[in-house]
Specification:
Elements lengths: L6 E5 L4 H12 L3 E6 L2 H13 L3 E6 L5 H15 L4 E4 L15 H29 L2 E6 L12 H20 L5 E8 L5 H7 L3 H9 L9 H12 L10 E4 L7
Parallel strand pairs: 1-2, 1-4, 2-3, 4-5, 5-6, 6-7
Helix pairs in contact: 1-2, 1-8, 3-4, 4-5
């Protein structure tokens, strides 16, 4: 049990990669704080963990609001006494592929969730980890955080920003015993993937064909990578971007 007695927080833990990682943390004996905006889905994640014998709570929070983020960290510490691990996974994809047709409101929405949300989360997570003298943070970027996706210019920009923010923070706090890394998935079987493809089989087939491994990934495959980066198995790794992309970026 590589995370036994650790306390792990997961934003965007209501579905997809976040839910899979929250469950995986619990299976490794971590106590889990599931964070998200949707209460029903968040409570469902907690139920799945508890039914499997794990320990978890749900905290309803919007990561774009600092008061919510501060409260989620305070709740984690108040219930479990500390915060050892944070997986900052909450994110979104834009709706309009054309740069010149994208609106200021869409820009603000994407950047607020994907970049501001990660910054605010790290700000308060690191403050707690500094008190403890240790911690591990994993942020979710994307293949679009390493290369450009021409049909998603704002999403691409936001996920590049997550990589840069992670690197800078990792260097700033490396000597404080806090490791900060990025996991960068390609296409994964999630509700977000369904929404991005419009549920169209031909679009799904095209995207699948872009992955040299011959398929898209599963939430559990990303969760396994996050587990590694979160744990002491990655004790000498910080500021790195781990691709979980079936070879997509390597082409």
């Amino acid at each position: 049990m590589i995370l036994q007695d650790k306390v792990a927080l997961v934003t965007g833990g209501t579905s997809g990669i976040g839910r899979a990682t929250a469950i995986a943390y619990a299976q490794q004996q971590a106590k889990v704080v599931v964070v998200g905006r949707r209460m029903d889905e968040g409570e469902e994640t907690v139920r799945l963990i508890q039914e499997a014998g794990g320990e978890a709570i749900f905290v309803q929070a919007d990561v774009t609001k600092e008061a919510d983020v501060e409260a989620m960290v305070d709740k984690a510490v108040g219930v479990f006494g500390r915060l050892d691990i944070a997986f900052n996974n909450a994110g979104m994809v834009g709706e309009n592929p054309s740069l010149i047709e994208q609106t200021e409101a869409e820009y603000d929405r994407i950047m607020n969730v994907n970049v501001k949300g990660v910054w605010l989360s790290m700000k308060h997570e690191i403050a707690q980890m500094l008190k403890q003298g240790s911690g591990s943070i994993v942020n979710t970027s994307s293949g679009a955080g390493v290369i450009a996706v021409p049909t998603q210019p704002l999403y691409t920009a936001s996920k590049h920003a997550v990589v840069g923010l992670t690197k800078a923070a990792a260097l700033q706090y490396a000597k404080a015993g806090i490791r900060i890394n990025v996991v960068a998935p390609a296409a994964i079987e999630t509700d977000m993937f369904e929404a991005a493809t419009g549920g169209q089989d031909e679009v799904k087939a095209y995207i699948t064909g872009l992955h040299p491994i011959g398929r898209i990934g599963t939430p559990l495959e990303v969760a396994n990578a996050v587990l590694f980066l979160s744990s002491d198995l990655a004790s000498f790794i910080t500021g790195e971007t781990l691709m979980v992309d079936g070879g997509y970026v390597a082409q």
